Structure formats: structure tokens, C-alpha cells
Amino acid sequence: MRIAGGTVLGLALFAGTAEVAVRLLKPTPRLQVVHGGATLEPGVHQIRVLHGEPVWDEADSAARQDPGCAPGATDVVLLGSSILWGTGYPHDEVVSHYLQADLAAQGSWCVRNHAQPAFVGTNKLAVAEDVLPRVEPAVVVWEVWANDAGDYTLIGDDAYNVGTVQTDADGWPVAVPGVPTALHHWLFQHSRAWNYLTLAAVPEAPGAYEATWGRMRDTILPRVLALTEAHHGKLLLVFMPFLDKPFAASVAFERDRLRGYQWVHAWAEAHGVATIDVAQAFVDRDPVALRNDPCCHYNPAGHEALAALLAPTVRRLGEEGR
């Protein structure tokens, strides 16, 4: 009895210590998590469901999505993640602002930035299905990025990107083996330590890369293309590189390692969809001078360079669609 009691007490102390540690230290989980809640505060979003997908808006979204354009302007819609959103900078220091200024040198244009941090392909498609019928843009700029193949499950107030991991019948990350589903679900929502342990330990789903990028190529992009053309627009895919290496190395990495990019390139060529490969276009430039961080985000000089790169193709596509 003493041994059993000591064991139970020890486990309770360990669990309590783990719970306090995770709540205080707030370690970054392995999977991407977007926290939701009724009250906006740093790190908390008002998540809503749009066409079956959880979506959210960062502060400063309104100024990006509706920059106050003149009536009759030619609309351009940007769909992407934190890269095109412009993490770290206000709306007037990101690509959509600079692109509109570049395009306005020759005509009346309106660049509407509907990118959002942490968005993946399914989120972007949901926004496209909402925005394109209302705006009927001449050009839709779709950012192709490494996390495009993700997929979010809404659990409580939070959205979890479970696109590449094993999930149970309800779409939750699978539990530690032997734990009943009902108990796992309760612990996942009420214990930060259990939540973190689950996200750290959940195994990758077999064939997840092929399945998720296959869905991008075979389902999501065809729907975006059909929707764009139904509203008399042109689609432009922009392939974004990592910024932790010279652009020449990124070109080689995308060619040799990023099979998803290769599949999307092939799909675009087969369907006559315009593309821009940023790494290839910037091959003679220094990524350090353009980046905000080594991942993928740009500083204002980088956003201005992206806008200058996009402008000629966007203008040509927009004029073709008129």
C-alpha cells in the first residue's frame, strides 16, 4: 500500500510539475496551432468557419484587404500565408502596397491582400470561394509555399494543422497508445502538458506528403483556377523560397528536393497557368538584404523587390482579361 501510494503521489507530482512547466514556459509545439478566443489579445484570434474551413484575420487586415481604391479600378487579389501578408510590418510596408503603387503608374488598380499568417492551401481556397465572387478580380495571385499542403482541424477554440500527422476518426491528433479516445480528448483540451505531449509524439501519417500535395495539385488548384476563370480572371502562381540560403541554392533545392513544387509547376504548365519562381528571379540577389528572418519572411526592401517582380506579369494578365 505504501509503495502504491508513493507511486501515485509521484505520478501526481510529476504530472503537476509538467503542467506548470508547460503553462509557464509555453514551448513551441511541433504542429502549427492558431489559438482562438472570444476576446482579441496578442496571440489570440477570432476564428470563424468559412466554407467548412477555419479562418482568421490579423489586426491591420482591413487596410490590406480594402486599401481605399477608386471606383472602377482593376482588382488584384493576393492569397497566401504570412509571407505575402508581411509579418512584422504595417500594411504600407508590404508587397500589396508596393504592388499597387507600381501598377498605378499605368492605370487604376486595386490590390487586395487576403493573405493571412499560418494559412495553408485549404484556408486560401475557402477565402477565394468567399472573395472572388464578390470582387471578380482580373488577377488572382496565389502564393505557393512549403506549408500549402497542411490542413486544420478546429478543436475547441483552437485550429491545429494536422495535415501530415495521424488523426483519429474525429480528426484529432492520435493519442498515446492505450489511452481511451474520450479520455484523450478531455486531456487534450484541459491539460497543456498532455496537449504538448500529444503534438510532440503524434506520428506522421504514411504517405502524407504525397497525399497532401496530390490534393493541392488535383483538387485545390483546379478549383481555384475554375473559380478564377468563372469570374473572368487570370491565375498567377508565385513560388516562394526559403531565405536561409543563397537563391541559387534555393533553385537547386526546389528542383531536387521539393517534389510538391515540381508537381505544381507541372500542373501549371499543363493548364496554361502563369508562374513566377522567386528564387530563380532573384538568383543574383543577396537574400540577407531582403529578408526579415532566415525562414521566408521579407523586410520592406524585400517586399518592394517582390512587388517590382510581380508587377509586369500582373499588369499583362490583367490587361489580357479586360
Features of the shown structure:
322 residues, alpha/beta, five-stranded parallel beta sheet, 13 helices, 10 strands, 48% helix, 13% strand, disordered N terminus
Quick gist of this model?
This protein has 13 helices and 10 strands.
Q: Give the DSSP E fraction (strand runs of 2 or more residues).
A: 5-15%
**Quaternary state of the chains:** single chain
Major β-sheet annotation: 5 strands, parallel
The low-confidence runs, each spanning 5 or more residues with pLDDT under 50, are 3-15
What topology, given as strand order, has the largest sheet?
A: 5-4-6-9-10
Report the principal-axis shape. Answer: globular
Helix content: 40-55%
Number of E-state strands: 10
Alpha carbon gap, first and last residue: 83 Å
The overall pLDDT, averaged over residues, is 91
Structural class: alpha/beta
The helix count comes to 13
Topology order in helix (H) and strand (E) letters: HEEEHEHHEHEEEHHHEHHEHHH
C-alpha-based Rg, rounded: 22 Å
